[in-house]
Design a protein that fits this description.
About 50% of the residues lie in helices and about 10% in strands. It is α+β, with helices and mostly antiparallel strands. The chain has a four-stranded mixed β-sheet with strand order 2-1-3-4. The protein is globular, with a radius of gyration of 17 Å.
Length: about 200
Amino acid sequence: MTQATTQRVRFLFDPACPWAWRAARWIREAARYRPIAIAWEVLSLTELNRERMDAAALERAARRQPALRLLVRAREQFGNEGIDRLYATLGDAIHGRNCSGEDRATLETALREAELPESLLATHDDQRIDEIIARAATVAMRSGAFGVPTLYFDDNPAPYFGPVIDPPPAGEDAARLWDHLAGLATMSCFYELKRPR
């Protein structure tokens, strides 16, 4: 595989979303079979929906903020590989083992499993990190993003919501799903495809 044949995708997620987690498992599997370069980015569901949330919902959302901050710090300090490893371990804890993403012990364990330092849990820059999370959501919404998972294929500025999958396909099935979605993303006439659950 040459660099020219590698397809690039930005994958936006909120660690609390089980659909984003399933799609992340799928795309990691697809990348074992196809030349895909995945750039991981946080997209806060709270920021996307803030204007429609009541006080109780905002309070619940605030308890999930430490996980988002942790992922942003991992990306800042350890690049795409750092956020990738942390999302893998954190997602497995939250969605695979039903651990609470609001629990500091869950975050500490995810950091250890990702081989990242516990210093990423520092809170001295929370306001700065929260501003980064809010700005990222504003930029994503301006492009048309409205939920997670959101994918941007290569240099295409248009976001694609999904795929919504359960269970995540494995092996060549994962690669074939990638082929179909990446192909559709090249067609400017394509907007939406959906079926009943």
